[in-house]
Amino acid sequence: MIGNETGNTVIDIENAVVSYREDIALRGVSLRVKRGEFVGIVGPNGAGKTTLLTLVNGLARLLQGQVSVLGCQFTSGTGHVLRKKVGYVAQMMSLDPRMPMSVHDVVMIGRYGRLGLFKRPSKHDHKIVDKVLELVSMTPLANRPIGHLSGGEQQRVAIARCLAQEPEIFLLDEPTASLDWKSKMDILELVKMIHQSQKLTTLFVTHDLSAIPVSCNRLILMKDGFIWNQGGVSELLTDTQLSKLYDMPVHMVQRHRQEAVAA
Ligand code: ATP
Fold first, then answer.
1. 52 CA distance to ligand 1 middle (Å)
2. 119 against 18, higher pLDDT
3. How far apart are CA 88 and CA 236, in angstroms?
4. Which of 46, 90, 114, 115 yields a CA-CA distance of 20 to 30 A from 83?
5. Structure pTM?
6. Edge to edge, what strands does the sheet with 86-89 contain?
C-alpha cells in the first residue's frame, strides 16, 4: 500500500476534468472503488473510458479535481510509483512473428518495474513468471516465440505479464477486441477466475456489449466524458438503458437467453 487509503477505498476520484490539449476527455468524473471490487466500464467510442483508466495509472493530465489511488494523491510525480502497483492490459496488438522473445521473456517484462532495468531476474522472479503462466494456462507454450501465438494466446500472455508485476489494481482496456467469439469467452472466463482467486481490484473497459463480464459487481456507463449511470449489471444491461446510452435501438435479449441456458 502507498500512503493512506481511506477505509476500504482504493480509487477515489473527485470531479476530475482531463484534457488532451484543447480536447476535454473527462468533464467532471467522480468515482470510488473499493478494494476487491470488479467494475465494468461501458460506453460508446470516445466516451472517456480509456482516459478514466489513465487517471488510475497516473498517466492522465488532470486539469481539475482530485485523484487518490491506493492512498497516493495524484501529482505529476506519482505516476511512476503508481504504475508499479497498477497493472494494465490493453487490446491485442499485431506482433512481428520474427520477434526474438519467448513467452517467458515477455512475461518477465512485468517484473522489471520492481527489479529495475539493469538487474538480472532472480530465482524468485522466474518462479513468479512460472506461477502466472500456470494461472493463465500457458505453461506448455512458455518457450514458444511470442509472435507464434494466436490472438487469444497473446492476450493470455499479456494478462500474465500484468500479473507478474504483482499489481494491486488490474486494469483491462478492451482485452477482447479483435478476438473471435470463443477466444473472447475464454478471456472473460479467465478474467473472472483471476478476480475470484486473486481478489484483485479490477476495472474492465469495453464498448462491446457482448464482452461485459457478468461477474462485475458494478457497471459504469460512460458517455461524452461523463459517468452517465452506474449500478448493478442486471439493472443497467437493459435495452432501454443501452438504447439511451448509444442513441440507437439496442437489443440484449439474445445474450441473456444464451447465458440463462448456459447456466
Ligand atoms: P474508445 O472506445 O474508442 O477507445 P474511449 O471511451 O476509451 O473510446 P477515450 O479514448 O478516453 O475514449 O477518448 C476520450 C476523448 O479524448 C475522445 O474524444 C478522444 O478523441 C480524445 N482523445 C483520446 N486520446 C487522445 C489523445 N492522445 N490526443 C487527443 N485526444 C485524445
1. 10
2. 18
3. 26
4. 46
5. 0.89
6. 86-89, 169-173, 201-206, 38-42, 218-223, 226-231
- Whether the CB of 84 sits within 6 Å of ligand 1: no
| CB 65 less than 6 A from any atom of ligand 1 | no
pLDDT digits (tens, 9 = 90+) for 190-235: 999 999 999 999 999 998 888 888 788 899 999 999 999 999 988 8
State in Å: Cα 195 to ligand 1 middle.
27
Does the beta carbon of 208 lie inside 6 Å of ligand 1?
A: no
CA trace torsion 158, 159, 163, 167 (10° rounding) = 100
Q: Assess contact for 6 and 12: CB atoms under 8 A.
A: yes
* Strand ranges, E, within the chain: 9-20, 23-34, 38-42, 62-69, 72-73, 86-89, 169-173, 201-206, 218-223, 226-231
